[in-house]
Specification:
With about 575 residues, the chain is an alpha/beta fold. The protein has 17 helices and 18 strands.
């Protein structure tokens, strides 16, 4: 391989200009011989630290290309514009363009090393040296060899060369936490699907919190993963005494605002009613029933039946009304989720989520992808569901016997479920839960992948713990600034190209790669979920047909209108 990496057949595409340093250099590029993000190399000599001078290949990435032509002055362009003259009709030269490329140095490889690794450059490249365009096969070999990964996974191709496959380190991905960001439609879900497919090949367990149904395609195409189990669950969580704070938050946020005396009474109910590991709705109904009994006793004419004399009946009534409102909202959300499941029942088999306390192995097991379908739930209940399940599974990993294997949690809509402090929503249960995952997950082999279209609205503590970033197209200035400030792996040129990336194009940086790479993510079209839709709203309207009940209502309205008009004529 050492011979291959100093291949004399590499084409010379330019010459190093006069000023260089150990981080960057400029070179004059031949027209159309390379493009931005291309990998190039130049040979130079450096001291080896033992008094010898050795020849090395210095590898770099083209960060920018500027073009100028001193033979074409501004005044000539002005005259041509005013007179509407084409340059071909003038004696001005058009073949004297100067293409100046800035190269960010990635490192060097020794030419006597059969297993080349990129080493940091400690001596500048020599001006006037030739710059070469290495073969794609050599670029790919270098990237794979330098990655030094036990479990490399394929995610796409180098953006500048579509024949160079890009692999990332799966071990760092599942252990060091990952942040996937980009505006809607930029390719985030495409990337996550690609990663899931590759990790399934490694039989690594994953739990996806699916808000919109973006990952149901895995269920429908299960035959593509014959060696894996794919489970599709709908929420059904039991609660325990340690979940008291989550229940309290649910009641306060979904119900009517409570005064201090009303909150005191609510706390009294939570302390008096036994937590029997029932469902959330069943427990809330138990609170209502218990409180109603107290209220009836309070209103009883029998003096001996009085209880809690310091609490007014009006206070009990307001709390009961608030609890009923919470139950009604939760039931409506459950019903909405059930209607979505019913609509897709001919395509998918939904299972009730097992009890994570007693049967965690049914959710997390080797080779299994578990998808929790949360469509229809508002932010706070969804946050409570995700938090309770995540905390329970995390505790199983903390136990000495570790009843479940290491796993990766994938959280969609991160800006909604783990918002920034500036959003004034950091009391959502998922915030504290994922802060714990981010801080302690590596110790207990619990990795997280956060997916968000608005990274500037993410919790700063959690985002800062994500050691790898997959960044897709971003137009919003705040989101670009967030990437610039939170990812130490990107340089200014990487961030500057984020607004112009096309769909499926992204920049990968962090511990899953050795240096930032602009990539075209492989599109797994066989994993698309046709039942969810592709946002083709116009075609949906063109193919729309009113349901029978709607047609009957329209017919009734039309007939009623005729009768009304007829009656009006008779009156006249």
């Amino acid at each position: 391989m050492g011979e291959e990496l100093r291949n004399k057949n590499w084409k010379t595409i330019g010459t190093v200009l006069g000023e260089t340093n150990i981080n960057t250099y400029l070179f004059m590029l031949q027209s159309f011989k390379a493009k931005k993000n291309d990998m190039v190399t130049t040979q130079t000599s450096i001291p080896d630290g033992n008094g010898k001078i050795i020849k090395v290949n210095v590898w770099g990435k083209i960060a920018s290309i500027n073009c100028s032509n001193e033979w074409f002055p501004r005044q000539a362009a002005q005259e041509m514009a005013f007179q509407n003259i084409n340059v071909e009709d003038t004696p001005l030269p058009t073949s004297r363009d100067e293409l100046i490329c800035k190269v960010n140095i990635l490192g060097y490889t020794r030419q006597d090393n059969d297993e080349p690794k990129l080493l940091p450059l400690v001596y500048p490249v020599k001006p006037a040296n030739a710059v070469s365009y290495p073969d794609s096969v050599d670029v790919e070999k270098l990237l794979v060899s330098d990655l030094n990964s036990k479990h490399p996974i394929h995610i796409g191709t180098l953006l500048a060369r579509d024949n160079v496959n890009i692999k990332i380190d799966a071990d760092s991905l599942v252990s060091r936490h990952v942040l996937v960001t980009g505006m809607s439609g930029s390719g985030k879900t495409v990337m996550v699907r690609r990663i899931i497919s590759e990790l399934m090949r490694l039989h690594f367990p994953m739990l996806v919190y699916d808000i919109h149904g973006d990952y149901l395609g895995f269920v429908k195409k299960q035959k593509l993963f014959s060696n894996n189990k794919i489970k599709l669950f709908y929420p059904s969580l039991s609660i325990k005494a340690e979940d008291k704070e989550i229940i309290y938050t649910l009641i306060n946020k979904l119900g009517k605002p409570l005064t201090e005396p009303q909150n005191d009474y609510l706390n009294t109910l939570l302390n008096k009613v036994k937590f029997d590991e029932s469902s959330i709705i069943k427990f809330l109904n138990s609170l209502i029933s218990f409180s109603k009994g107290l209220l009836d006793s309070k209103n009883s004419k029998s003096k001996g039946s009085q209880s809690m004399p310091h609490i007014k009946p009006a206070t009990m009534f307001v709390v009961n009304r608030s609890l009923n409102q919470v139950v009604k909202k939760l039931v409506n959300m459950e019903n909405t989720n059930a209607r979505h499941r019913q609509r897709m029942s001919k395509y998918y088999d939904f299972e009730k989520l097992p009890d994570a306390s007693t049967e965690p192995e049914k959710i997390i097991s080797k080779g299994q992808l578990s998808i929790l379908y949360l469509r229809g739930y508002e932010t706070l209940p969804a946050s409570a569901i995700v938090s309770i399940l995540s905390e329970t599974l995390f505790k199983h990993r903390q136990e000495v016997d570790q009843t479940i294997p290491p796993f990766l949690s994938i959280l969609e809509e991160g800006h909604t479920l783990i918002p920034s402090r500036s959003e004034n929503k950091d009391n959502l249960p998922t915030v504290d839960t994922f802060r714990k995952f981010a801080a302690e997950g590596r110790k207990f082999s619990c990795g997280i992948m956060i997916v968000s279209q608005r990274p500037s609205r993410l919790d700063e503590t959690i985002a800062s713990q994500c050691n790898s970033h997959f960044s897709f197209r971003k137009k919003n200035q705040k989101d670009q600034r967030f990437v610039r400030e939170t990812s130490e792996h990107y340089d200014s040129e990487d961030v500057n190209q984020l607004p112009s990336l096309a769909n499926g194009q992204g920049i990968i940086g962090g511990q899953v790669v050795n240096f930032p790479l602009a990539v075209q993510v492989k599109f797994d079209d066989n994993l698309l979920n046709d039942e969810i839709g592709d946002e083709d709203f116009i075609s949906a309207v063109e193919n729309w047909d009113d349901k029978e009940s709607v047609k009957l209502r329209k017919k009734f309205a039309k007939d009623f209108s005729k009768i009304s008009k007829s009656a009006q004529k008779n009156l006249n």
